[in-house]
Structures are given as C-alpha cells and as structure tokens.
C-alpha cells in the first residue's frame, strides 16, 4: 500500500496514520514538518519513507519504523542525526543531500551513520570533517556521495571499513593540494576506496590558495606537499627593492617576488649575495 501526502502544508505527521498498518511506501514531501513525532513507529510494515523539502532540523532514528529500508530526507535543514545501537537496523539507503550537516562521527550517538547502510548520499551539505573510523562499523557500505561539501582534506582512514570496495563521489569540495590526498590517486590495496569522479577533482595550492589546479595534474607536478609545522608561507613581495639591501632578507624566505626594482642601477648579479639563494 502506498500513500502520497505531498504538498499538503502539514506541520507534523498525521496521527490518523497510526491505523495504516499495511502501509509500505509513504511520501510526505513538500510539507512544513519540522520534527518527527512517534507516529511513524506504528507503521510496522513501512519500507520506504520520503520526506524531501520539509523543515526538519534533526533526525532520531529511534522514531522510525524498524522495517524501514529506504529513507529520503533531501533538502531539509538537518544539522544533527541521532543514532543508538539497534535503531534503523534494516535501513539500507539514505539520502540526506542538501542539508546542513557539518561533520560525520565514528563514535558516540551524534552524526553517526547506522551500520547496515549500503548507499549514503551526503552531497551538498557543509561537511568539513569526517572522523577517522567513521565507516569502520559499516561493512556493507558500497556507495558514498560527498559532492559539494567543505572538505579541504580527506584521510583514507576516514573512509575505510566496508568489506567491498567503496565507491566515492567527491567533486566540488575545496580540497587543498596536500600530500594526504595522494591515496586518492595511488591505491595501496585492491580494497581501497575508488573515487568515481577523480578526473574532475581540483585543489588549491598551499602557497597560493587562490590558485586551483586539477588534482591529477598537481600530483604529476609534485605539488601535493605536506604542510609546514608553521602556517607561515615565507613569501616576501618587494616593490622598488633596493638591491644593495638584499642581504637584509630573512633566511627563512622560500619565495621572493620583485616588482619594479632599480635594475639599471644595480646589476641582477647582486642576487647571489642574498643568503636565500646560496642554500
């Protein structure tokens, strides 16, 4: 049995649904529901629940029917999901795209994903951090969509756990050209996750964050570098530099940019006296 209640300006799940024990598919999309009550728990045969385009801000899996296998919550305002063991035991597919999640956890009960999931769509959220071990309990996970989030780096340990080779989508994240991304291009094991949209990924240069390059190209040019212990970039930009004062440049300089220097008065050979060129 299927029930479509889309676009009815509902603010809460109708209490009358508790009597629909044979309901298998329920669509509550395009309403104004802002929280989950306990009404849905009584729908013991419900397999598919769609609540796209509502006003939900958090999800407690304990308020969902035990037999639920497919859950779509696209384009809500969800910042938090609550998971406790034994809840959502049969859930296999979840779509949380277009929400406001900012991290995924591998422990506790907040923003931790249920273990039985096979497909997870987290695209177009605000995820900036995925804790290492976040997928360690998700042995069945086969597909994870992380497109359009705020990830600047992604450690391999954050997406290890599934027994089958996990397929990832990562396009549209503001990655930095960091050596920690090399695993995306050079799989160490046959079971390492595979990035399906790898050719489209780009990263910003560590020494010039305004410059973005294709991730594969950055690797070929040896631009996937590890960050310094200090965030100082050691770049000196000089305008109308007096070349007789080159010796005053600090030895820590790694990049020197000279604009409008007095070359006619001071020969370019003067640069060799600078300590930064003699190392």
From TrEMBL:
InterPro entries: Leu-rich_rpt (IPR001611), Leu-rich_rpt_typical-subtyp (IPR003591), LRR_dom_sf (IPR032675)
Alphabetical keyword list: Leucine-rich repeat, Repeat
Pfam families, alphabetized: LRR_8
SMART domains associated with the record: LRR_TYP
PANTHER family for this protein: IG(IMMUNOGLOBULIN) AND LRR(LEUCINE RICH REPEAT) DOMAINS, LEUCINE RICH REPEAT CONTAINING 53
Official protein name in the record: Leucine Rich repeat-containing domain protein
